[in-house]
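Q: Please design a sequence for this.
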């Protein structure tokens, strides 16, 4: 606060003094020329004093400003380096995961191939067993049908033989032959 007040007073004095000198009327043209030469020199001296005072007053705030700005930029650079290092670390981690994922996919494909091969073999074996069972059932059915047909044929042949024999016997057996057959049948224990 004190420095800013001193700076304000210094600036006002520096600006006001040359203005008051510039307002003085010059009576002689020669004096005017010499005072104009002195006025230019005074203006240069006044400018140097003004700039020196401004530099003196603004040196500390300017250095503080530039120091804080330097610190902000340094902090920003450090944060950027840290962020870059973190992103590089994460990138390596992601690449590592992708490599692991690729190897896992390859392993899963190999496992799926093995499982599908085993499943295919299992299905083929089950199909072979089913086919063998069907063939066996077909053989059994054929044997059953063949025995049934054979039995039917034997029955029909037996019926035909009995029918033919009975016709033959009826025509050739006499009454005495029939009695003997009945007696033999009854004599059996």
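A: Design:
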């Amino acid at each position: 606060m004190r420095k800013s007040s001193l700076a304000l007073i210094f600036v006002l004095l520096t600006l006001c003094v040359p203005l008051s000198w510039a307002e003085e009327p010059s009576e002689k043209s020669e004096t005017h020329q010499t005072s104009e030469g002195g006025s230019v020199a005074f203006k240069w001296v006044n400018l140097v004093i003004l700039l020196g005072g401004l530099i003196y007053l603004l040196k500390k705030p300017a250095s503080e400003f530039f120091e804080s700005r330097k610190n902000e930029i340094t902090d920003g650079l450090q944060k950027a380096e840290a962020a870059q290092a973190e992103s590089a670390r994460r990138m390596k981690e992601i690449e590592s995961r992708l490599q692991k994922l690729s190897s896992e996919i390859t392993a899963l494909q190999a496992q799926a191939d093995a499982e599908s091969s085993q499943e295919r073999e299992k299905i083929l074996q089950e199909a072979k067993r089913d086919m063998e069972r069907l063939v066996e059932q077909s053989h059994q059915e054929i044997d059953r049908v063949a025995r049934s047909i054979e039995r039917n044929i034997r029955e029909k042949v037996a019926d035909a033989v009995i029918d033919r024999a009975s016709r033959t016997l009826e025509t050739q057996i006499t009454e005495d032959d029939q009695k003997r057959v009945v007696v033999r049948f009854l004599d059996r224990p």
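Q: Thanks. Anything notable?
A: The chain has three helices and no strands. The chain has a mean pLDDT of 81.
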